[in-house]
Amino acid sequence: xxxxxxxxxxxxxxxxxxxxxxxxxxxxxxxxxxxxxxxxxxxxxxxxxxxxxxxxxxxxxxxxxxxxxxxxxxxxxxxxxxxxxxxxxxxxxxxxxxxxxxxxxxxxxxxxxxxxxxxxxxxxxxxxxxxxxxxxxxxxxxxxxxxxxxxxxxxxxxxxxxxxxxxxxxxxxxxxxxxxxxxxxxxxxxxxxxxxxxxxxxxxxxxxxxxxxx
Length: 214
What we know:
Blueprint (H helix, E strand, L loop, with lengths): L2 H14 L8 E6 L2 E8 L2 H12 L6 E4 L2 E2 L9 H14 L8 E6 L2 E8 L2 H11 L7 E4 L2 E2 L5 H15 L6 E6 L2 E8 L2 H13 L5 E4 L2 E2 L1
Parallel strand pairs: 2-3, 2-4, 6-7, 6-8, 10-11, 10-12
Antiparallel strand pairs: 1-2, 5-6, 9-10
Helix pairs in contact: 5-6
């Protein structure tokens, strides 16, 4: 698929997506790699725009250069924002108490600590992305403890059989707490499913995705 077609499809998908002001987002495509620029009203909108671009057929990767500009440019101090983040995490029952530490600098929230499952790490990110004042999130939370390699591989294979159209085209290798995905998929959606299955296995700290689109 040529870059002009991919660019138009990304623009159309952004225009169709709720919560995204497509008029404020620029799109450049080169060899299937999409660069998003411009500015949005919140970090959540920035995240949605990136996900929208990734799901378009023909997109190989996304470079995200979008700036967050809050309406009327409200100034929320880092100390106040850190307190809001701490309260949100305290109220979220999915996140273990005192498992995550928070650092805020110029609206950029850095998260550290450890949790037993990857979905808890993702829940922290999801809980904070809609807070006013957040311009970026750096999620450095570790997932512990590691599980047995055979158990991890079995869980991933079972998840792929439930979700992927042809799971046999996806190879799974487990090295310690690292999962390596190889092979090919028909659509980007299957690649996302494979990654999600790998991250859902308990103890997984890293996923290397070498899957290609057939």
